[in-house]
Amino acid sequence: MEEGAARLFKRGISLLRRGYPEDAAECLKKVLEMSYDSAACYSWLGVAIARSRYGDIIKAEEYCKKAIKKAYYRPQYHNNLAEVYLIWGKKRKAIEALGDTLNLDDSNNPAHRKLANMGIRNRAVIPFLSRTNPINKYLGIILARLGLR
Hints:
This protein is mainly alpha-helical.
């Protein structure tokens, strides 16, 4: 990556993390205009656009999907797409994107946190028993503590 583009990219990410998505989007667009065709840039630009007040969610989704097409095996890009879907209110698609993240990296903490915040729970340990059944409850607790769930 060219030094100027790298510096601008880092600045865009920094602005996005500090809560300035409009400014971050401008920086990331400039990086793309510098002919730096990076999957990371597309993915973070999608998030910046989605978070901005005047965000074009469809464009944000396109950028995130383009990043995934360029580098499918990067869990962060799937996380970013899920964030765009959550901002858009498309919970089912967000769950699918987070599922893709976990298929690539089953220990991805941000994906697990997003799913937990959305209220997604694991299946019952013994599916034919109710969730409130003490056997299911305590088996689930034990497996979770052992890190098997």
